[in-house]
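Hi, here's the filled form for the chain we discussed.

Project: internal
Contact: R.S.
Residues: 128
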Amino acid sequence: EDKTIKMWDISGKNLLQTFAGHEMEIYSLDYSMDGRFIVSGSGDHKAKVWNVETATCMYELGGQDSHPNNMHKDGVTSVCFSPDGEYVATGSLDKIVRLWNINTGQFVHAFDDHKEPVYSVIFSPGLS
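And the returned structure, exactly as it came back:
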């Protein structure tokens, strides 16, 4: 509830990094397969891509700086990296799944045929 992500060394029980920048509670996290990035989804209508090494936000996906058609209009409940690490999918209470290019932070596509809020997104293994 403190609106941050904390990365821990479990064996030593040491706090390694704190990622701060969301304005509401965080609903979902995913770790990239190469271990370089974390993506988070929050009640603040934003998804953020974080650099693990520096604990800095690289991209804000669907936030206020996005084109109005690409903005999340409600909380981001689910986030997922594609297996190849090229994309992030975000699911939202606004009933839309959005696809983002991880290298540029740019919006790629919206899947908007859902009748209810989206609580989980995942990529099929072997597909991007």
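Let me know if anything looks off before we file it.
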